[in-house]
Write a sequence for this structure.
């Protein structure tokens, strides 16, 4: 009997594929093994064809990676494999400052401008038509995060890096890696009075500056987002530079933390208010902004939002899906949209395509203390639901609306939904044992059904909620739009 050297090519194709898939699964399940996937791609041609799409699907890039990234994505076949790029704007260490010869005080803007321009210059050369010819690249999603270098004495307050858990989740599409990751309760008392002004400024700061010169147009990018895992903000002017460079953007998701200082937050909101309507891409279909509270300070409530709300409405009239949580107040959104002067401005074009809307409302937050009164609170909820019905008449294609709020032990969710059989339904879930569906509320929503040409309108009996709602993030799983308002891994962090 002759001896033969084992050869993978002699195996049945099904068994060969099974072996490759098992190797890929091992790499995705073990963060330390992930770099080995690139080595597998170099074994032979058949292994390259299997592993390279997995290797090139997600890229995590810092400054030192950009040159090599440009080299390995020279041909259109590899470019067509890239689905997601995470660009990390990392503040250089003291050693890097010295090695790069950076100025002591004026290094930041040119440093980060160079990083962003480097990546944009590379991917601006990727052309949709060329990639389509080889059957790839239906859309590239770009993620941006900003990272500050903290001194050792502030270690207690440094955000826990989720790089490992996130990278593992990108590989296998599962959130299991987040079971051991902190929920990042930066809005807990620890991050209130105990934080020094400097720590608040460092943790919840304005974010990096870049030159105002327009970025190269990048046609392959259809999605852009930031995640709540990182507390530094992206300045409005930087966001708008990015928005203007994405002529085919369809999906933008901004997860942010409120600034640590009131003056900085007011400045950020003013920047959004003034220019947001002028920079929302015409191609955009979905905008989601989720704002976390960060340090507590009653003076934050004094920041006026009425102009910002109006600006948001005027800038998002063409969208199909809109999700604004804690960024603006749902009460003001409905009031602004329903006022006669605003109605005239949006009539015939405003929210004609909107199918999904999620908002938060201060009226749904039951602040249970010695001065809290159930009847007064319920009256505010009833008024909110009537305002929502009036505003919904300007959204003829709306299929799902959710208005919610909670925390500190309570939760409330109002939902309007149109079923597949073209019937409307309103429902109410709350930790407060009350029914806000008075006759005037029911009649208001029946008018919506009539205006929208629905075959009927039903009212689901209210649901009394129970559970630990100390953190408002615990309410997210109750939302049908939970996959839209936040990145799936952000939901995993919060819940």
């Amino acid at each position: 009997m002759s001896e033969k050297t084992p050869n993978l090519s002699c195996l049945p194709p099904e068994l060969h594929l099974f072996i490759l898939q098992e190797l890929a699964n091992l790499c995705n399940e073990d963060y330390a093994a992930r770099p080995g996937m690139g080595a597998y791609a170099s074994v032979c041609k058949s292994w390259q064809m299997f592993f390279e799409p997995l290797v090139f699907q997600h890229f995590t890039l810092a400054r030192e990676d950009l040159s090599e990234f440009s080299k390995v994505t020279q041909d259109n076949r590899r470019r067509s494999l890239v689905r997601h790029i995470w660009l990390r704007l990392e503040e250089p260490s003291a050693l890097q400052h010295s090695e790069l010869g950076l100025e002591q005080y004026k290094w930041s803007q040119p440093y980060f401008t160079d990083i962003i321009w480097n990546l944009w210059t590379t991917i601006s050369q990727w052309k949709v038509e060329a990639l389509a010819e080889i059957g790839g690249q239906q859309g590239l999603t770009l993620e941006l995060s900003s990272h500050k270098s903290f001194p050792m004495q502030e270690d207690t307050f440094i955000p826990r890096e989720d790089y490992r858990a996130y990278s593992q989740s990108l590989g296998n599409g599962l959130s299991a890696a987040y079971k051991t990751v902190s929920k990042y309760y930066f809005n807990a008392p620890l991050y209130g009075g105990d934080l020094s002004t400097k720590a608040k400024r460092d943790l919840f700061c304005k974010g990096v500056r870049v030159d105002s010169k327009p970025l190269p147009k990048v046609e392959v990018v259809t999605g852009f987002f930031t995640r709540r895992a990182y507390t530094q903000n992206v300045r409005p002017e930087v966001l708008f530079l990015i928005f203007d460079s994405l002529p085919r953007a369809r999906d933008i998701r901004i997860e942010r933390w409120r600034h640590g200082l009131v003056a900085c937050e007011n400045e950020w909101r003013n920047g959004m208010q003034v220019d947001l309507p002028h920079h929302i891409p015409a191609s955009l279909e979905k905008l989601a902004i989720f704002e976390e509270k960060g340090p507590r300070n009653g003076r934050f409530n004094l920041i006026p939002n009425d102009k910002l709300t109006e600006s948001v409405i005027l800038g998002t009239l063409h969208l199909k899906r809109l999700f604004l949580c804690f960024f603006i107040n749902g009460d003001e959104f409905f009031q602004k949209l329903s006022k006669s002067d605003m109605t005239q401005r949006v009539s015939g074009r405003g929210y004609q395509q909107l199918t999904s809307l999620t908002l938060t409302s201060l009226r749904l937050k039951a602040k249970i203390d010695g001065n809290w009164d159930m009847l007064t609170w319920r009256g505010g909820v009833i008024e909110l639901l009537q305002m929502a019905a009036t505003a919904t008449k300007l959204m003829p294609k709306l299929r799902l609306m959710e208005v919610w709020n909670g925390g500190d032990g309570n939760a409330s969710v109002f939902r309007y939904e149109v079923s597949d059989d073209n019937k409307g339904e309103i429902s109410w879930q709350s930790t407060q044992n009350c029914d806000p569906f008075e006759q005037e509320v029911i009649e208001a929503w029946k008018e919506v059904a009539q205006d929208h040409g629905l075959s009927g309108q039903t009212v689901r009996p209210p649901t009394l909620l129970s559970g630990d709602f100390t953190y408002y993030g615990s309410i997210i799983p109750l939302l049908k739009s939970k996959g839209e308002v936040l990145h799936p891994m952000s939901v995993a962090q919060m819940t």
Observations:
- The longest helix spans residues 374-392.
- The radius of gyration is 25 Å.
- The chain has two domains: 57-247+255-279+288-303, 315-495.
- Confidence is low (pLDDT under 50) at residues 187-192.
